Amino acid sequence: MSYRGYEAVIGIEIHVQLNTQSKMFCSDSTQFNAGDNENTSPVSVGMPGTLPVVNKKAIEFAIKTGLALGCQIRKKSVFARKNYFYPDLPKGYQISQYDQPLCEHGTITFKVGDQQKTVSITRAHLEEDAGKSNHQGDFTMINYNRAGIPLLEIVTGPDMRTPQEAAEYGRTIRQIVRYLGVCDGNLEEGSMRCDCNVSVRKAGSEKLGTRTELKNINSFRFVEKAIEYEIERQIDMVERGEKVLQETRLWDPDKNKTFTMRSKEEAQDYRYFPDPDLLPLIVTEELIQRMKADLPELPIARKNRFVAEHGLPEYDAGVLTAESDLAQFYEETAKVSGNFKGASNWIMTELLRELNNNNLEINDSPITPKNLGLLIGMIDKGTISGKIAKAVFLDMWKDKKSPEEIIKEKGLVQISDPSTVEKIIDEVLTANAQQVEDHKTGKKKNLFGFFVGAVMKASKGQANPEVVNQILQKKLNG
Questions:
Q1: Is residue 75 domain-shared with residue 223, that is, in the same domain?
Q2: Which long-range contacts does 128-133 make (Cβ < 8 Å, 24+ apart)?
Q3: How far apart are alpha carbons 186 and 18 in whole angstroms?
Q4: How far apart are the C-alpha atoms of 75 and 284, rounded to whole Å?
Q5: Taking the chain, what is the end-to-end CA distance rounded to the nearest angstrom?
Q6: H-helix or E-strand containing 226?
Q7: Which site among 36, 213, 252, 420 is 20 to 30 Å from 261 CA-CA?
Q8: Tens-digit pLDDT profile for residues 149-183
Q9: Which residue, of 385, 410, 435, is where some domain finishes?
Q10: In Å, how far from its chain's centre is CA 117?
């Protein structure tokens, strides 16, 4: 895509907070809503003489994610000390991985609109998080609860060209880590944070421009807006003959602009060296194969299967596979009902509406997949009409009962017996003799719908519409 004759070059680093119960190198809790500095110990606040111990679960989660991203898993990786000063970095260095990351050389494919896009994953490495600074007037309070929480930093190549691609890439990563169960993907709580590297160059040029880093963006909508702004800002500078500085910038969502955080005109030397307190991480083939066997069907593959095997439209399949639990609910419903499209329609319209109205997740639904499947099956068998089914659905939601119980209690079984339906129709036609005459003589048009409505009213909505139509056609037009 060209911006005023320029092309954007975008790469993204996503920090994924791994969903472990303890920190990366000690047993401190990772509970989010703990009191300030409650989840700390001598290790996580960097006391002299303390020693780190690697979290095995974090290693497994990282391997699992790397495999899902098509990465090669290093049999030997090394933890290094990355030396820099932040007030909330207690040791004065961060334990990370440098030249020997755990995962590298992967790819991820996703769709942006109708276009398929493939982005390379340069590396995915493990590291620990820093603490958090809270600024209050002239004072800064430090909360070390986050210090030491395990992060997996996923780094792409400079493969994206539009803000839309960057935002969709982020959404895809979030969807994958949630499917894997390695991260809750809660951007508001900082479980995922995006750093975007952006530069511009003349369209057709191979030479990369000077890049700026947009730091710690916590919304994919803001990712799109921040990159859009930064592209235009850099083009304006180039057009004015100004030099784009290599710097870290922050996004201000209130002002819809980026601003300088710190200059990186000279590339920082973090003085990486292998952490002397940690041995090289050796990963066995057995562990890799165990993590590979534990991989679920990933969202893109599941979506494609729903389209190919279930005959669902691509849009429906995309909605249903947005979350793993929703996709599972649909599959269980479809299995009980035997109707793929029916299950899709009821979940996407009736069920999601009620969940949204009541601010509930799919696992909190008072209607189970089994009961929804039974309801759909009753419609297909002609036991109840679609109209009755909607009323039953609302009762199922309210009372958490099965459709059979509600139908039995309220006597809502659909009347499909032709002789019973014919008797109701005869009574309606007798009571509306003038309208019958008008219909037969053509004096009034469109009376057929009147008779259908009258029959349905007389049967309290329980007459089978198909049977009603067939018998009325014979009696009125025969």
A1: yes
A2: 128/23, 128/24, 128/25, 128/94, 128/95, 128/96, 129/15, 129/17, 130/86, 130/88, 130/89, 130/94, 131/88, 131/89, 131/90, 132/88, 133/87, 133/88
A3: 11
A4: 6
A5: 64
A6: helix 220-239
A7: 36
A8: 999 999 999 999 999 999 999 999 999 999 999 99
A9: 410
A10: 18
Rounded Cα distance, 242 and 13, in Å: 27
282-314: b or e for each residue (b if 16 or more CB lie within 10 Å)?
Answer: ebeeebbeebeeeebebbbebbebbbeebebee
Question: SS3 for 212?
Answer: strand
Closest CA to 26 of 278, 283, 276: 278
Same domain, 234 and 324: no
Same domain, yes or no: 324 and 450? no
In the chain, the number of structural domains is 3
CA 317 – CA 319 distance, rounded (Å): 6
Do 66 and 202 share a structural domain? yes
Strand partners of residue 247:
263
Count of CA atoms in the C-beta half-sphere (13 A) of 247 = 13
Residue type, 196: C
* Same domain, residue pair 378 and 264: no
Residue 333 and residue 396: Cα distance in Å, rounded? Answer: 15
Nearest to 118 by CA among 168, 193, 43, 61: 168
Give the alpha-carbon dihedral of 242, 244, 250, 252, to 10 degrees. Answer: 30
**CA neighbor of 64 nearest in space, from 285, 323, 294, 321:** 294
Lowest-pLDDT choice from 73-77, 301-305, 423-427: 423-427
Residue 453 parent element (H or E)? helix 448-458
Cα(78)–Cα(96) distance, rounded to whole angstroms?
9
Q: How far is CA 362 from CA 321, 329, 357, 359, in A?
A: 12, 8, 12, 10
1 falls within a domain? no
Report percent pLDDT > 70 for the chain. Answer: 97
Q: 339 and 239 in one domain?
A: no
The residues, ordered by sequence, that sit 6+ positions from 430 with a Cβ below 8 Å of its Cβ are: none
CA distance 79 to 393: 55
- The residue from 290, 306, 326 where one domain ends is 290
Task: Let me know the angle formed at the C-alpha of 331 by 329 and 335, rounded to the nearest 5 degrees.
Answer: 120
pLDDT tens figures, 400-423: 999 999 988 887 766 777 888 888
* Strand ranges across the sheet with 72-73: 72-73, 103-112, 115-128, 150-156, 6-17, 192-202, 212-217, 247-252, 257-263
Q: Find the domain containing 163 and state its range.
A: 6-290
- The Cα–Cα gap between 334 and 326 comes to 12
